């Protein structure tokens, strides 16, 4: 496909932008005192060099109460200089235009980090943090509006090309817009007009301060996806009003609020799911519209632009994962991209835990300055055992550094345990991680030997300089009576496709990530898949209630037995709630603080506290974790080779741990 539209220049107000790719604001938490640290600079520098058209630095705080020291700040004049110098550097060395997102978090800020009670249109607690904000007075409103103006003027003085005001999400302006969070009885509450007033006044005041020729825009939620909140209709009204007020040279349309129960950005969200929001708003305004959320596939982005749904495409996490994505697409090398798999583990989950942003598949994120890949001084012959993410990443980087690498995989394909994740509901995209590593390996000299276990004999015969043991893990054994029964199978076997006739009653032992996700897979088996659901819905074959009945009923009773208090405790905050919601929709039962006692042919016995109970069962699936496989390191220790153990073989972790271990150790050898 030719990417004619994606690389077509566009002009917003007077700002000429080389292509249609926007990097939207993303809180990275690379500071502890609002300052533009070297970590931030290195992150942005790589993305600007990678060919993005409009790169957003931010969110940037307009005051202290609406933010935290972990995000950037522009609420004092002395904060201008750090940006001035950096933006000038980016303007000199790249073609990217630089945008700033000005943000006030409203009730989403926290006293724990800002040191101040959050403020909001009304004193309604934040459902996520439980914190109660203070209702803003007239004086507060004036102060916040003035803070926006001052921050915008500082942004202009710092050399930013474009100012974006965050008017969506569950942040302050969005909170004024929504009847859920705005219960005011003054001119800022009540009717839609009144609720829009706070945001429109800010937009107008900022426009007046910046002048008519300075490019500025807004970011809105196309729909809040919160019960009782704003819908697309109100969002369109706000966008029309903002354009009319002269304060929106462009409109960036994102999805719903943090507290929505409709997944917005996880791997479960079909790519392009929220494009219709941008398309609808574009139909109502005359200014350029940006579309957002899961549009990282370049072909999808190109098609979205060609279809007229939007004028620019936001690539947020796709540019975290691969800063060079625009260049790679432009140069016809898009197959080599590091994809965003929507796992959120290194990015959104990290910031919710107060940690710095990293990336599962790009181990350099947040460490760009200290992790350059340099040629090795001494070139080695290296054998890698295991073609999972740890072994593949190691082989890739070691080879790029000039080492002579042979990668052995005992199975018939690369990818290791990621191949088990692929069949899980909403996780098929994880297989793109394997495809990407395979394609990147193809551009190196790495010799790949599939169906070839690396053995102590081979090592002793060939004595490589270095043996890297990346042999992964195997399911942990569970010692209970009946575990060897014919009705017992491991989750790994289920995910390998070895699914016997499992019957209607299934018990899953272990309510961690693997147990819960495998339970969901099994619960979904008999239900109408999404494609057929949409076909039936499209043709109005059945009414909505009947359709839901087909979709949420797999005809199987699935029970998860978990000894701990919390199910899916090892799943990230941004995905856990959706996993539990999906299990509930599918009618699965989760029994926590419950132990399995034994397994019989037709039932399992469980123990909750002092009570014992029998559950009828046809099939038992065991998902009680995994243990490292590293025998090779022991058996080969008498060979003359140096030995390194990485990934799950060293310590059970996640894909990010495996990739990072592979990358970091390859930088050191
Ligand atoms: C069901 C399931 C769901 C998961 N979900 C997630 C998730 O959502 N997010 C996440 O981050 N992580 C998840 N994980 C964990 C993640 O997949 C692992 O942490 C990661 O794959 C470990 O990578 P690795 O390269 O160390 O080992 P592996 O992926 O296990 O790869 C090891 C490879 O070594 C090969 N091998 C073994 N012995 C030899 C030998 N002697 N010679 C040659 N080859 C050999 C194996 O065949 C295998 O291909 C999940 C795991 C499972 C099982
Ligand atoms: C770590 C992280 C922090 C984010 N912070 C903000 C923010 O402060 N302001 C904002 O408007 N959007 C924020 N977003 C949302 C992104 O701008 C973007 O809309 C979202 O990631 C979906 O797009 P994508 O699928 O291209 O990543 C954040 C996203 C991530 C991953």
Describe this structure in words.
- There is one protein chain.
- The protein is of the alpha/beta class.
- The chain folds into 3 domains: 356 residues, Aldolase class I (TIM Barrel, Alpha-Beta Barrel); 141 residues, Rossmann fold (3-Layer(aba) Sandwich), CATH 3.40.50; 148 residues, FAD/NAD(P)-binding domain (3-Layer(bba) Sandwich).
- The chain has 23 helices and 28 strands.
- Strand 24 and strand 25 form a beta hairpin.
- Helix 13 packs parallel to helix 15 and helix 18 runs parallel beside helix 21.
- The longest helix is centred in the N-terminal third of the chain and has 21 residues.
- The radius of gyration is 27 Å and the shape is globular.
- Flavin-adenine dinucleotide (FAD) binds next to helix 13, helix 14, helix 18 and helix 23.
- Flavin-adenine dinucleotide binds next to helix 13, helix 14, helix 18 and helix 23.
